[in-house]
Every structure is written in structure tokens, then in C-alpha cells.
Write a sequence for this structure.
């Protein structure tokens, strides 16, 4: 007989606290699973681990496809390790659900970091339902923290919902921008500029260096205009230029936020989202499981289109009201 969820959770917790990386990976798999018993085990393990969660720093790294997120995380992660930190990376990649997994892709982009004892890299399949966000990024971050990783970097694709969601659950949000001045300004949405704590113009090396600096100047003006307090810099993950500055900058901002109490406030807001989202998920799952009278949907649509029912009435009937 397999162990009960509580017993399985207790074992997992002991292993994670003892530094067992395979156990950490397993716990993340369980929390991402859709099976109720896996969920029960994972959440029980997380409950027991929560006293170990909170001291770490959670950082989101976002930007358009190919801008250099993974390469930057590789360089930044190494810099953090040089400073004595332990670094976990969660890569959330929508393309992984299309290509059937970009695990090798991400590991090879982070090949230097992947070899480090003090690093843990975990690519998670994204959930198309959520617009390309892993369903359990928040829980995975907490598990990494409990396992003693004091920095958790989350790579997320710069597509609408996913970056907004991730920005809400991290302590600092770094947005990478393509070098090249002028028209790029149109491409990045105002909302994203407002989410960013740090804007970094990537690939500032070789022929891109000058355009990168021009872009930084333009974005700097845009940020002033928007009245946000985001910092802006140029960097190159390839040459290493700007990586130390990025690490310093994010460190300083997080220390200031911790002192001012804004870090705690940000986490409290996210805690409310955490439980609310799970509650919504449970409701939706229960409703879908009943699925009793979905047969009436066709009739409800006809009635709505013919003007017999209004759309709100039809939706309420579908819910059995
Ligand atoms: N010149 C230059 N090229 C870079 C730099 N960083 C990344 N690249 C190149 O840009 C390409 C994409 O890099 P990735 O790190 O995979 O970019 P990404 O944003 O993680 O890509 P996705 O995860 O697919 O969205 C690769 O060919 C890198 O070698 C840099 O600092 N300078
Ligand atoms: Mg990547």
C-alpha cells in the first residue's frame, strides 16, 4: 500500500530540509499535478515547510521571446553564487507545451549555472489555460526557499497575463528589452513598464551596444513621463557587462523595500491572491465535475441568440440557478 499523503509529506519534508534536490523536484511535480492525492501530499508538505519560507528573495525576469532571459539568468545566477548565495531558477516557458518540453533548451542556455552545486534549475510546463504561466509557480518558489535557496529567479515569457501574474508574486520584477532604438518603444506596453522594478536593455555588446544605450535613454524618458520609480540599465549577458550592477541594484532595492515594509505589504497582497485563486480553482473544478446539465447549453445558446433569454439569465440557468 502506498503511504498516506500525510506520511508521504512527512518524508518529503525531511528530505527537502536535508538538502535532497531530487525530493525538491518531486515536491514541485506533486504540487503541479492535477491528481487530488498528489495535491494533498504537496500542500501538506508545503504547510510543514512554511516556517522556512520568507527569508528568500523572489525575482521575476520577463521579456519577449529570444531577448536573452535565460542567458541573463545564467550570468546573474553565477554572480549571486559568487556572492555566497544559493540560487533556484524556475523557467516558465509557453513553448514547452508546444514543443513537448524545452527542458534541454533551457538547461543548455543555463549551462554554466546548471553545473553549480548551489544552483537548482527547474523548467515547468506552462499551462495554456493560464496564458502560459505555470499553475504553481508560487508554490514552487516557496518550496525552493524552504530547500534553502535564498534567491529564486523566475523566467517568464513576456506575454500578457503571464507576466502580470508573475509580477504579482515576486519581490522584484525585471523586464528585458531588445536593443534598437525608437520603434521598440511602441512595442512594449505601458502596463508592463509600470510593473517593472528594473528595465534592462539586453545584448548591449558589439554592434548592439550603441543602439542599446539609445534605447535606454528613450525608456528612461518614458519612465520619467509615467512617473514610475523603475531603474534602467544596459547589460550584456555575453560579455558580463552590467551584470554586477544589476545584482547590486536589485539587492539594494529589495533591502530598501524590506526596511520600508513594502516588501511585506507586497507579499501580503499576493497571499490574498494565492488563497483566492485556489478557492476559484476549487469552485470551478467542482462545478465542472458535476457537469450535470451541460446538455442544456445548446438550448440556452439558441434562446440567447433568438432574444428569448438575456445572456446573464442563460449563464445563471447553466449554473442551475
Ligand atoms: N549578443 C548577445 N547575444 C545574446 C545575449 N544574451 C543572449 N543572447 C543570444 O540571444 C539568443 C536568445 O537567448 P536566450 O537567453 O535563450 O533568450 P530567452 O529570452 O531566454 O529566449 P526564450 O526563452 O526562448 O524566450 C541566444 O542565441 C543567445 O545566445 C547577449 O548578452 N549578447
Ligand atoms: Mg529562455
Amino acid at each position: 500500500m502506498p503511504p498516506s499523503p500525510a506520511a508521504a509529506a512527512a518524508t518529503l519534508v525531511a528530505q527537502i530540509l536535508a538538502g535532497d534536490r531530487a525530493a525538491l523536484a518531486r515536491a514541485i511535480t506533486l504540487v503541479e499535478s492535477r491528481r487530488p492525492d498528489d495535491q494533498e501530499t504537496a500542500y501538506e508538505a508545503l504547510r510543514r515547510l512554511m516556517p522556512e519560507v520568507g527569508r528568500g528573495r523572489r525575482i521575476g525576469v520577463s521579456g519577449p521571446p529570444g531577448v536573452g532571459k535565460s542567458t541573463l539568468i545564467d550570468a546573474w545566477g553565477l554572480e549571486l553564487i559568487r556572492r555566497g548565495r544559493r540560487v533556484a531558477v524556475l523557467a516558465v516557458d509557453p513553448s514547452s507545451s508546444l514543443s513537448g518540453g524545452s527542458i534541454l533548451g533551457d538547461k543548455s542556455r543555463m549551462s554554466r549555472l546548471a553545473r553549480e552545486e548551489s544552483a537548482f534549475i527547474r523548467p515547468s510546463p506552462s499551462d495554456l489555460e493560464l496564458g502560459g504561466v505555470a499553475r504553481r509557480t508560487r508554490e514552487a518558489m516557496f518550496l525552493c526557499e524552504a530547500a534553502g535557496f535564498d534567491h529564486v529567479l523566475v523566467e517568464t515569457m513576456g506575454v500578457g497575463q503571464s507576466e502580470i501574474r508573475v509580477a504579482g508574486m515576486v519581490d522584484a520584477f525585471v523586464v528585458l528589452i531588445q536593443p534598437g532604438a525608437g520603434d521598440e518603444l511602441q512595442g512594449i506596453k505601458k502596463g508592463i513598464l509600470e510593473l517593472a522594478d528594473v528595465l534592462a536593455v539586453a545584448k548591449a555588446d558589439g554592434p548592439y551596444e550603441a543602439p542599446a544605450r539609445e534605447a535606454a535613454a528613450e525608456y528612461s524618458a518614458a519612465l520619467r513621463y509615467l512617473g514610475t520609480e523603475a531603474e534602467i540599465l544596459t547589460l550584456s549577458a555575453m560579455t558580463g557587462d552590467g551584470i554586477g550592477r544589476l545584482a547590486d541594484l536589485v539587492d539594494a532595492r529589495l533591502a530598501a523595500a524590506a526596511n520600508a515594509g513594502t516588501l511585506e505589504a507586497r507579499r501580503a497582497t499576493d497571499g490574498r491572491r494565492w488563497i483566492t485563486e485556489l478557492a476559484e480553482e476549487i469552485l470551478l473544478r467542482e462545478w465542472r465535475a458535476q457537469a450535470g446539465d451541460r446538455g442544456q447549453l445548446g438550448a440556452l445558446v439558441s434562446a440567447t441568440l433568438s432574444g428569448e433569454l438575456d445572456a446573464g439569465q442563460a449563464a445563471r440557468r447553466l449554473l442551475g440557478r
